[in-house]
Design a protein that fits this description.
Elements: E1 5-10, H1 14-25, E2 30-36, H2 39-45, E3 53-57, H3 65-72, E4 77-82, H4 88-93, E5 98-101, H5 106-121, E6 128-133, E7 136-141, E8 145-150, E9 158-162, E10 167-170, H6 175-181, E11 187-191, E12 194-197, E13 201-204, E14 208-214, E15 220-224, H7 230-236
Parallel strand pairs: 1-2, 1-3, 3-4, 4-5
Antiparallel strand pairs: 6-7, 8-9, 8-12, 9-10, 11-12, 13-14, 14-15
Domain Response regulatory: 6-117
Keywords: DNA-binding, Phosphoprotein
InterPro entries: CheY-like_superfamily, LytTR_DNA-bd_dom, Sig_transdc_resp-reg_receiver, WalR-like
């Protein structure tokens, strides 16, 4: 493994922690930053630790590893460990790196770390877009983007509406390329001609999205959901 995996362990059993730490020490380019046996203490400290992977036990008293993962999955990669196979479907619903059954074998743990390495070393999407616009070469911070649509003047261009109502025109850029630049968790394509920032959605129904983007101070932009995009939108909202 080339990329260093810096992991944090959470398991309510001290013996399980000791065994897992022992295995990790035998694997190249893996460092255990810290280990916890209490989910609440783990959650209080995790944001301040220099780590890129969390190994979570699922069955714990008070708070399960699944509940913990829901709170940190946006910022950390996760490997689940458990003696119970019935949690596999729920674990993968959370888009985790891997699900390792106890008793953990070193070879199986190495496989999980290899998967994690590929994700950790993958280039992260930037929080800004740099592109030619109607005002020249421009940097747009993605958190400021409310809504994107195909330009009515030239379909090769894309109109971006910012949170303050400003419109910027991205020149000669396809939706496919644009979506590759945007943070996946923050934006969704609604139909062939429109992309919405999830933070701009006010009401979501089967066929329509009502946004928080005002047209004239009273009415709000409504978007029709294309059939091709319904399933992916529903998945984003956990439906």
């Amino acid at each position: 493994m080339n990329s260093m995996i810096k992991c944090v362990i959470l398991d309510d059993e001290l013996l399980a922690i000791s065994y897992l730490k022992l295995l990790c020490e035998q694997i190249e380019n893996v460092e255990v930053v810290k280990a916890f046996n209490d989910p609440k203490i783990f959650l209080n400290e995790i944001d301040n630790l220099d780590c890129n992977l969390c190994i979570l036990d699922i069955e714990m008293p008070g708070m399960t590893g699944l509940q913990v993962a829901e709170l940190i999955s946006d910022s950390k990669k996760i490997i689940f460990t458990t003696a119970y196979k019935e949690y596999a479907a729920e674990a993968f619903d959370l888009n985790v790196v891997d699900y390792v059954r106890k008793p953990i074998k070193k070879e199986r743990l190495i496989q999980a770390f290899e998967k994690a390495k590929e994700l950790v070393s993958a280039p992260q999407k930037k929080d800004f877009i740099e592109w030619n616009t109607n005002i020249g070469k421009t940097i747009l911070f993605t958190e400021q983007i409310a809504y994107i649509k195909t330009s009515e003047i030239d379909s090769r261009d894309k109109d971006i509406i910012l949170n303050d109502g400003t419109t910027i025109v991205l020149k000669n850029l396809s939706f496919k390329s644009l979506l590759e630049m945007l943070p996946t968790k923050d934006f969704a394509q609604v139909n062939k001609k429109e992309i919405i920032a999830l933070s701009s959605i006010k009401i979501f129904s089967t066929n329509e999205i009502i946004t928080s983007i005002s047209v004239d101070g009273e009415n709000f932009i409504k978007l029709q959901i294309g059939d091709t995009y319904k399933n992916s939108l529903l998945e984003m909202f956990g439906k």
